[in-house]
Fold this sequence. Notes:
Order of helices and strands: EEEEEEH
Shape: globular
Distance between the termini: 17 Å
Helix content: under 10%
Number of domains: 1
Radius of gyration: 12 Å
Largest sheet: 3 strands, antiparallel
Number of strands: 6
Amino acid sequence: MACGVLYVLKKYDQKNTIINFAYDTHSKQYRHLQIPFEIRYGAMTSLSYNHKEKRLYGWDNQHLVAYDLEFFSSTAVDTWMHLNQPGALD
């Protein structure tokens, strides 16, 4: 969950997977996505976004992992509307 938007991984146990779904809890709209996502150690069981640090933290097969993220805007509407563009999440 980031900026009021719930993001879903297609596979939690596949090294090269995608974020394939986003649901905006404010507008109640959803979107299908194709954002590449790498699972480094084999099984991602938890993800949590820290908006102050702009980092996504995960628990991946007994390893704490971190991903640096940059959103286009601080509002959910502006953020998720641009996510289908390549390179939207770094």
